[in-house]
Amino acid sequence: MTSPAKADTDVVVPPRPRPRRGVSLLDAGPPIALVVIFAVFAALSSDFRTVGNVQNILDAAAVLAVVACGITFVLMMGSIDLSVPGVMGASAIAVALLVANNRNDNAWGLLGILVAVLLGAGLGCVSGMALVSLRVPSFMTTLGVSAVGLGVATLMFAGVQPNITDEMLRGWAVNRFLGLAYLTWIAVACVLVGWLIQRYSRLGRYAYAIGGAEEVLSLSGVKVAPYKVAVFTLAGAFYGLAGVMVTSQLSAGLVQAGKGYDFAAITAAVVGGTLLTGGRGGVLHSAVGVLLVTVLTNGLVQVGVSPYWQGGVQGLIVVAAVSAAVLPQRRRNQVTK
Amino acid sequence: MKSISRPTAAVIGLTLAAAALTGCSEEAGGAGGGAEAGGCAPEDVVLVGQVRNESNPYEAAWLDGGDAFAEQVGLSQDRLTYDGDSTKQQEQITQLLAGDTECLVMNILPNGDSDTLPIVEGAQEAGAYLVTQWNKPADVNVTDYDQWLSHITYNGVESGQQIGDALAEAIGGSGGIIALQGILDTGAAKDRFAGLEASLEANPDVELLDQQTANFSRDEALAVTKTLLTKHGDDIKGIWAANDDMALGALAALEQAGRDDVAVVGIDAVPDALTAIGDGTMTATVSSDGPWQGGIGLAIGYCVATGELSVDDIADEDRAWFAEQFLITGDNVGDFTSPEVDEADFECDNVFSRSQGAIS
């Protein structure tokens, strides 16, 4: 049918390079969802659209944002991390016992906070080591490390709640700078640091690459194992800091300081566009996801949804938001597991 | 037959397992109690107190109360803990009942409702004297057993109402309050909230502005309270929390919001809450009196074992009953920071004196 001449012209004119539409839409989806959900709540509730409530949302998002920073690196690698409750619990009790408190005479101040963060990093390192040296899937190693962390926390807890009297740490939750609590600024700094690591350091770029195609990376001569351990250690440090932040907010060290933050952070990361299969997303995506989840929790209370309905409604909106976000990236014939 | 097909093997396996299990439960259910009660010399009585763990201040105080009673009658108490692990609790009970049970008295905190029945049937079989507290399935009747002397629990409706009334009084009888509910599908949360509703009816000028769940968690209560503070602002004069942990979370939120004009109440009398009440930052909480709980179960068992009290003489309404609980405010908080037991409470004609009526 087609003449040879026509076929020739087809070959000569190369197709115009088109942007990878799917990827850009995938990136835009969660922020758009955030704006839409925010606008809907703002229209529904006059209490929601006050400056005070926006401050409250940002303050409430702080701890989850720091946890999400850490877990994002693990998810980017295609691993999963369930050690959050244990690591946060251990660091929360540790910091409560190291700064000025009602249980002992310690008053280490900033050094105590540093030790708690390092404890978190240490537990993260254990997860990573178990993953690469014993070749146990991250799902199991991190679950085990979580139990270890809770065990350590329970031992240190010893039946009496440590309440902190350290003015600096208590002040982090109470004092404000430009309308936001110090803790919120710490979270902003964490997101920034996380983004810089992800974007500019070898660790961040390898984490992406491991999630995208680990075999290719190792075949090209890169030793993957040390980077995996490093990523889990980094994540542990973030969880440790989050445990310190919870202690600051409650002015008491709780064994269950990290309860529920593991799945909340994974949800936030996925809602923000970080894929559980790895190789996609990043710290900024997860930060958007954290804001989305926090706005949702806050908004449902502000518009006055009954507590008996909230859990279910929140779940539905999260599923809807995730499916809308990944819609452009879904291909025909793609298998969903 | 060369081999059995896999589904057939599975069915046979399951049937065998089921048969074995039925066998077990028949063994436990049959026979029926021995000891027609009353024959033990006081010095032969063995006292056992069992709670979840000693790292919990309330349960540690419970066991201390048991020790105090044991000392009163010149005996000692075996302190058992099972770390909140149902399996471990059952193992400990089995072990106990395998020994000499003729004069064994057990004061048990079952881990959950479903853990009570096996303990009861074990005690019935072995002829040990048993008192349980807090957890019991609603459809199991204590009167069907003669070794299960009594079951003691607390009326959540009443405690919810007590702190509701204390809150209403603290805010001067009128104004807005918010409520922090517990885990919505637990009996404790439902009962306590029903108590608040009753209190609100009695105090018509107190308005419930909002109610949210914080799942009995200090951390969640912090976030929820902050949100409600931005929503209702200065209209909030008081916060009703279904337990002390949430009340303490609400206190942290108030501190961060710079509010010191809000009254906060909770339930459980945890040490931090008592400190807060002593400081004047918290208004009220409710105590079940842990040391008394530790002593009273042993006392009832001891009285029956030694023959001073007969199971047949215990009125039906004293077989499963609500015990008295105490409202703690700034006025009486000093009495509860280092609780002590009163020997008179454990006299055999006095053991049911704190009853607030049978469990309906």
UniProtKB/TrEMBL annotation, chain B:
* Keyword entries, A-Z: Signal
Q: Where in the cell is it found?
A: Cell envelope
The secretion signal range is: 1-20
Name the source's superkingdom: Bacteria
Q: Quote the Pfam families the UniProt record gives.
A: Peripla_BP_4
| Occurrences of domain Periplasmic binding protein (ranges) | 53-308
Please classify the protein's predominant subcellular localization into one broad category. other
Q: One GO CC term of this entry?
A: cell envelope
Q: Which GO terms describe its molecular function?
A: carbohydrate binding
Q: Would you identify the family this protein belongs to, as annotated?
A: Belongs to the bacterial solute-binding protein 2 family.
Q: Any idea what this protein is called?
A: Sugar ABC transporter substrate-binding protein
